[in-house]
Amino acid sequence: MNKPSDSGQADISTQLSDNLAMMKEIFANCSDITILPWHYGPDLKYSSISVYYDTLVQKKEHNYFKETLQDLVTEQVGPGTSILPEKLFTFYENDGASAQSAFVLYSMDQAVIDVLNGHIVIFFDMWDKALSYKAMGVEKRQVTEPTTEPVVLGPKESTIEDLDKNIGMLRMRLKSTKFKIEIFAVESETKTQVAYGYLEGAVLPEVFSEFKQKIDGLQSGEILETSYIEELIEGSSLNPFPQCRYTERPDVAVAELLNGKIIVMVDGTGSILICPATFTELLQSSEDYYQRTLIASLIRLMRYIAFFIALMLPSVYIALSTFHTELIPTVLLLAILNSREGIPFPAIFEALIMELSFELLREAGVRLPRPVGSAVSIVGALVVGEASINAGVASPILVIIVALTGIASFSLPQFNFAVALRILRFPLMVFSAFLGGYGLMIALLLMWLLLAHMRTLGQPYMSPLAPFKPKLLSDVLIRAPLQTMLRSPRQLQLKKRRS
To answer: Membrane-spanning residues where (predicted)?
Structure first.
């Protein structure tokens, strides 16, 4: 039941004609708004109007409400009773609720917001309140397999663009009264609903306190997608490293809640934001916990190798081929020199041209329609690579290096983390071109200092590597057996504090 409004809100008039005029003024020039007058009671002598958007509500809901209105009141005040205004008003003012989730509204502002949210709002003559009930009928995407986080083992369902259903899928997996969900609507033209959840007793109080301070800034502003919230939570928008994770898997969100994380959801988008995220967590995948320990550990180690390849391989090639040829085995050096014979560009320009071409092909494959995009990205890479070699613009060894770098970046589970490596790869190449291996070491040192300095919601970004916490290393480079990791959220919180 909605509570009475603040004094600053417009009151609902007892005169139906005044409410009708106000609704027509507010929703003027809206072709899909319906303001439907209808009558009830003995001889249909009492008037009322229904206000709703045709494009948002189910058409059958309004007729269903009118047909069952007599039954609802009869059940409360006795058989054979006609629907009289006094009895109807008393019924709903005394917290009466129908099967259609009816609420009493106390202000015109509340009535307008409910209409915008897909409710049917009913005004009755001689009543200074209104009746609202949910009747949303917009078609939404059905629950399908995850598209960005596919797994061989594990659940095969993903979140959708319906906030209520997403919360329901989380509740189905985490049946605990300590799982708290708080929902608020931003004060903007969109009136977007934002929800954040946490597990009481698992999340660190200082993390939650800082999160609350930052999320309070969302009370006003246009929020259309979960990523809008990420920039508010993170420390610096210019930092390439992501400080939050995204998932569309309910099982991943529940697992992170048990680990003391906070999740954020926005109505109208299927992505769940997980914060805070540390460096090592961005290299973990949900399937690491569905495979056996040995297999999961090997795959995770391969992922760390892919991280270094995606970040450093072109830079290492430039440094070795330009400054440190003595470190290359003689046979390989001769092969590289032979392949570079006739190339008119230095190694840095050659690498930049091929990397930029690969990035353009990758973006083209993403932006084009799916049936065409995959063909363009694959065929385009083959054609560009072969043509570059034949034209003497690029050497075969560099084409292989760029291809390996791209494949390594594809193997990283978090897309936003892979994008950060794509950005950092270019300054590392420039440092290597000017100072060789020393330049690469300087660039890596600067990057390490940035990572060590970073904090996300007050937590060290490189934890448990910096500061070093040996007791928390069981789920970093390898995945320890589950029997050593399965602990209650409270035990995990105490373990983090002690270490």
So the answer is: 301-323, 397-421, 428-451
Domain enclosing residue 103, as ranges: 16-134
- Do 319 and 422 share a domain, yes or no? yes
16 close to 125: Cβ distance less than 8 angstroms? yes
What pLDDT, in 10s, does the model give residues 447-487?
999 999 898 888 899 988 888 888 778 888 888 887 777 66
Is 474 contained in some domain? Answer: no
pLDDT at residue 65 tops 70: no
**169 shares a domain with 124:** no
Q: Are 90 and 214 found together in one domain? A: no
Q: Is residue 479 part of a domain?
A: no
Last residue of a domain, one of 92, 117, 134: 134
Tell me whether residue 88 is in a domain: yes
Supply the pTM of this predicted model: 0.80
Of the ranges 64-73, 211-220, 248-257, the best mean pLDDT one:
248-257
The pLDDT value given to residue 387: 78
449 shares a domain with 322: yes
